[in-house]
Predict the structure.
Amino acid sequence: MTGAQLTDKQAAFVREYLVDKNATQAAIRAGYSPKTARSIGEENLSKPDIRAAIDAGLADLASRVGITAERVLRERARIAFFDPRKLLDAQGNPLPMQDLDDDTAAAIAGVEVIEMKGGAEIPGVLSLVKKYRLAAKDTSLAALEKYLGLTERPMRFALPRIESAEDCTKAQSAVLTAVAAGQLMLTEAKLMSDLIDGQRRAYETHEFAKRIEALEEAVNKKGVR
């Protein structure tokens, strides 16, 4: 087993990391110095033997508590495709919690029970009002879309050739035009704009370095004279 290759401190780090998945705190609890715990924690997570031991521990924990990919996807699907009509009977009255089917009950994130007492006109009357708080569909739908690869598609937009900082301005203009024409989604345009900005900064840094070098060379020549 990979864990046999670990030192006592590393094995302790693995055990502590499985508690809350906080590398810094796991390093401290495992006996590393608090001053270097953050860097040690990050370093430990990058080591193959430690990473393998953590992955094995997480898999074992998930298995013991019954967490599987199939179960997670099933629960996501229940929330994503929840039909609110199933909360009501044929007359449109809310069904008691115990009468809900499993799929409908799984989409309920919480229940609020409000106790209402009668006033002076109706003394002694007590009624309970239940409010169901439903889980958000958007999050589950997004998770399923990502799992099925429905949100990933290749971008078929060619940027103008970029060979200078000035070309970056033209490229940004082309991206905006593509968004207006419906060729690019906003998220795609943001990604491309960030890449263009990074390229612009690289060119500007290079040009600045060349100017500094030219100035130093000029100063050195003047000093020689």
